Task: structure prediction
Amino acid sequence: MARLDGAAYVARGAVSTAGAVAQTKRMLRRAFEVQLAGTGFGLVEILTMCPTGWFVPAGEGPGYLSSSMERTYPLGELVT
Result:
């Protein structure tokens, strides 16, 4: 998505920790601001927990998200 024409803001956030949630909220706000300004489209991908699909106990979901998913899909702003 970040390579498409018209991409003004593309980011990837997560909800595995309180800090990550706060950062993801800022990313969502920025994506809406870019969209409303008409400078292009904004997109935020959010990594969330699905312990049943991962076959891990629910309490281990945030740790698994941080240790496994965030390594494969790094967090941050891809296009600003």
Notes: The longest strand covers residues 7-14. Strands lie at 7-14, 41-47, 76-79.
